[in-house]
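G., the chain you wanted modeled:
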Amino acid sequence: MTAAGNGAGALEIAARVLGIATDAVLSCEPIKHGLTNESWLVRTRQDDIVVRLSNTADAALQIDRQSEALVLAAVSEAGIGPDVLLCEPSQRALVTRYLGDTWVEADAVQEENIQRLGQLFRRLHRVAPPTGVRRVELNDTLEGYFRTLQERGIQPALTTKSLRERALQVALKLRENSAATLCHNDVHHLNVTDDGTLRLIDWEYAGVGQRLFDLASVCVYHKYDKLQREQLLSSYTSLTELTTWHRLELACWLFDYVRDLWMAVRESGG
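Predicted structure as tokens:
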């Protein structure tokens, strides 16, 4: 389906969800920052909503839409994610309330906002994971990407034996003596909204996983230096001893590595 065709489909879905005629929609504008989906901001006189249509191979990029639906319900109730108006994984369609503009990159590196992110992570990791939400085992994630690249005949430099072994060792290290919690796993400025309360959007990589890997996402995306990482960690937990700091550093290395693998899979046809 073409982008124009998808836009028409988004308009029809929005009208159906809101119970209005399509000509009652004031605007239906594409949102450009999605990498694995096509999304539209739909405005009416009463509502602003986002219609998202998946446009990629979910399995290769390790996206579980059924699990995402469960997570969305939980984080909406907790006031951490958007209200869900329609979630049809089989049709690759999701409709949520529009939470407002996302942060710009500069917002994510302000000291006050780093502290707020730490508090947001703490709130998220206290949310009880719904039954049926997938577990994000980092070693399985790695093996899955390795396997996909191998099947496609792609052998990038980041899949050398030494790097593969180090990544798997770090994944196992992060799992040791660590309680798994509900995690977003893809926190950066384009996934943060702020109306005085921080909320997160784009939950497709969420699942029950490692807390410090979740914190690592924002550290890596925004190139936090040592002081900024310490600020994030101290606002998240009182356990700021050397062991916790070292584990966050390992998590940052692994997140960066997993992100590169994801890009390699996507560019190879994912």
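The longest helix spans residues 242-267.

Shout if anything looks off.
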